[in-house]
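Why does residue order matter? Because the sequence determines the fold. Keep that principle in mind as you read this record.
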Amino acid sequence: MPSVSPTPSPTEPSPTVVELRPSYNIPLVLVVAGIPIGFLNLWVGAGVALFGLFLLFQAATLRLQFTATDLDVYRSGDRIRRFPYSEWQNWRIFWTRVPILFYFKEINSIHFLPIIFDPRTLQQLLEARCPRRD
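Structure:
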């Protein structure tokens, strides 16, 4: 008889490591917006579209992983940065209705990231693992 694993109860802790799914919304909007802008000004439209393509590439290759103690950034499976929550002073997601930018401040640096990841999960994980200190 096959064994059936019990479904997790709502009281069980969340997984230790959570990887955010990519969100292609902002890159695609920029690529599409570059077309009509290009009719008004070719260079500006091309710049907007190229920036959208750059963000599309970043969304496809970068991954954010939330661990119990750190936010890790991976590119193609290799960790490229680690941000320990203990060094965070504040964080914020700008324009929560249409999230486009994620900001966080560490003791020695400030970081701005475009929202190229699932914004709802990002906010839930930030609130759970690194409560805001306004």
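DSSP finds three helices and seven strands in the chain.
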